[in-house]
Amino acid sequence: MNSEQSTLNNQLLSLLQLAFAPVGAYSYSEGIESLVETGVIDSEITLRNWLENSLQFGAVRVEAAVVVRALRAAQIGDLTALNYWNAWATATKETEELRLQSWQMGRTLVRLLLDLREAKLSCRQSPVASGLTTSVKDLVEFGGNQCNFAIGFGIAAATWQIEEEAAVLGYLYSWAANLASAGVKLIPLGQTAGQQLLLDLQSQISCTAQEVLKLEDDELGSCSWGLGLASMAHETQYTRLFRS
User: Fold this and answer.
1) Of 64, 27, 54, 14, whose CA–CA distance to 172 is shortest?
2) How many CA atoms lie within 13 A of 191 on its CB side?
3) What is d(CA 89, CA 87) in angstroms, rounded to the nearest whole number?
């Protein structure tokens, strides 16, 4: 295997590790639980429609766009831009539940990234060399504010030299996989139905990724009032499987 192929393989493995990093995403349903409770989502079809609409018009598009901006800022060590987009990402969260979810997952990812970095340095092994001009520690401690998950994801992607398109695809797929899993538990659906759902979403995930990469800063926006209402309802739902 030549060095170029080896580098590509390592980057692919790093993307897979990042997309499925243990950050606690499995404990959140992003409103799916309250939608199942009220009967808005009651089948594979209605869940697929919700996720497709979210990919086309919802908040996850904006989050993926923030990933791109965080990745670019981390690559050049622009702490001012990282701080700006982190504050911007916090301001776009419509409910306390969604904001706390993003902070908790971001905090966990940052801690994991630092721990992995220290482990690599201690054993002098780094399968994917970092090309960053600013230390990972400085990047993740910018501004002293809570780090949103999209920001942490972008920093991790830059650290592991994952390309923008691949990072966005990984972010969108991990989001879809988590909510598909929530639907499997809540509706409930069989595991095969859940996997079929993810296959059905592949085309939309790819299309959304391409659109996100072309968005200018003043084009960032979403139609996510349904998510906001579902999240608010979940905050006070009497019985819950998922974290609020």
Assistant:
1) 64
2) 0
3) 5
pLDDT in tens, 25-60: 999 999 999 999 999 999 999 999 999 999 999 999
Query: Which residue has 């079809």 as its token pair?
Result: 45
Sequence-distant (6+) residues with CB within 8 A of 61 are: 55, 208, 211, 212, 215, 222
Segment 63-115, tens digit of pLDDT: 999 999 999 999 999 999 999 999 999 999 999 999 999 999 999 999 998 88
Return d(Cα 173, Cα 187) in angstroms, integer: 21
Question: Could you tell me the two tokens for 68?
Answer: 């791109």
Predicted TM-score (pTM) of this structure: 0.92
Long-range interactions of 9-15: CB distance < 8 A, separation 24+: 10/127, 10/128, 11/128, 11/160, 11/161, 11/162, 11/163, 11/166, 12/166, 13/127, 14/127, 14/128, 14/160, 14/161, 14/162, 15/157, 15/160, 15/162, 15/166, 15/167, 15/170
